[in-house]
Design a protein that fits this description.
Blueprint lengths: L3 E2 L2 H8 L3 H10 L6 E6 L3 H17 L3 E6 L5 H12 L6 E4 L9 H7 L11 H8 L8 H16 L4 H7 L1 E5 L6 H10 L3 E5 L1 H5 L4 H4 L4 E4 L17 E4 L3 E4 L5 E4 L4 H4 L5 E2 L6 H20 L22
Parallel strand pairs: 1-11, 2-3, 2-4, 5-6, 5-7, 7-8, 8-11
Antiparallel strand pairs: 9-10
Helix pairs in contact: 1-13, 2-13, 3-13, 7-9, 7-13
The structure holds NADPH dihydro-nicotinamide-adenine-dinucleotide phosphate and 5,10-Methenyltetrahydrofolate.
Amino acid sequence: MSAQVIDGRACAHALKATLPADVSRLQQDGLPIGLATILIGDQYGASAYERRIRRLAAELGVPHRPHPLPADTPQDGVIRLIEKLNNDSSVSGILVLRPLPAHIDEATVFRAIDPRKDIEAVHPENAGLLALGVPRFIPSTAASVFHLLDTWLDSVGENRADFYHRSLIVVVGRSNNVGKPAISLGYERQATVQSVDEWADRTTGIGRHTRWADVLIVAAGKAGLIKTEHVSENAVVIDVGINPQTDADGRVRMVGDVDYASVAPRVRAITPVPGGVGPVTDVWLLRNTVRAARLLAGLPVDDVLSLATPIPALMEES
Ligand SMILES: NC(=O)C1=CN([C@@H]2O[C@H](COP(=O)(O)OP(=O)(O)OC[C@H]3O[C@@H](n4cnc5c(N)ncnc54)[C@H](OP(=O)(O)O)[C@@H]3O)[C@@H](O)[C@H]2O)C=CC1
Ligand SMILES: Nc1nc(=O)c2c([nH]1)NC[C@@H]1CN(c3ccc(C(=O)N[C@@H](CCC(=O)O)C(=O)O)cc3)C=[N+]21
């Protein structure tokens, strides 16, 4: 039987429906909303993402200021730009695209962002809040992964809590802005969560872990890493990877970390690339920009992580 294809474009379309109204309400009240992006160099995935954000911001009416910087920009120059954006009241959200060139220390750059404008939760304060289960912002890629899962569960009529409580979620890749936040969101849903990194691949192989996964989240940045022997038949596979692949005719196209052609026929459900996690990530970043603008203005925001279900007592109190 062939897998159900989880449609990221449809999910993104539904998720963005209320955003233009949210944006114009802020603007009518004279409250600033604006997104600043910093792209250093021209890495394929980062440039692709920046272009998409640019288009989506225009569509939703969010003022966007792109800051393209040459690959050899010194770290001080990047920090100075961030400080300027921190102090600019027309900017409510700041996104620094990864990966950064080797001469720039990611942690130092992320620490320079005003935590209230840190829409990807990369500043230690926001990363800590997420790890503690009380996030200010949910990083957009991990948010997209779980939004797709939740939406898919609703569509097949499975109770979200029942599903997560009994499920093993295996996360391949544990970077600070994709893998680790996804692990945190899995914990928050009270699933059993396992993290697999490159050492597992180099030593015992990742199949001994991934084959047990009810939910397999793959964010390694390695095209074709997950093949049919890595998955079980009831798995729900979420492919985060965005990798450039050059066709025989010289055209570059995007592929995920999952070998879709061999894996899709075997599993229960799967996200494609393109058209899976990516489009929802884009919308979530703009949602976080609106959230930041509201928080900066002192307006209420929804509680994004009230998901945990208390475990009933085993014995009634006498
Ligand atoms: N679709 C979307 O919305 C988004 C897609 N992406 C894409 O997701 C991918 C991952 O991004 P990101 O987390 O930033 O990448 P990083 O390079 O920062 O991290 C990759 C992680 O994967 C692990 N890894 C690498 N190779 C293997 C392997 N063979 N087996 C197991 N684990 C492995 C690394 O392990 P170790 O820690 O041991 O080095 C590391 O933890 C990229 O393709 C990126 O373009 C990113 C953001 C959004
Ligand atoms: N700080 C930071 N945060 C990121 O989230 C981040 C980053 N840096 N650096 C680069 C990667 C890559 N990334 C993408 C997200 C969505 C699409 C996306 O929407 N892609 C479409 C592609 C459509 C097409 O052009 O074919 C899709 O998947 O359907 C692509 C790439 C975010 N990243």
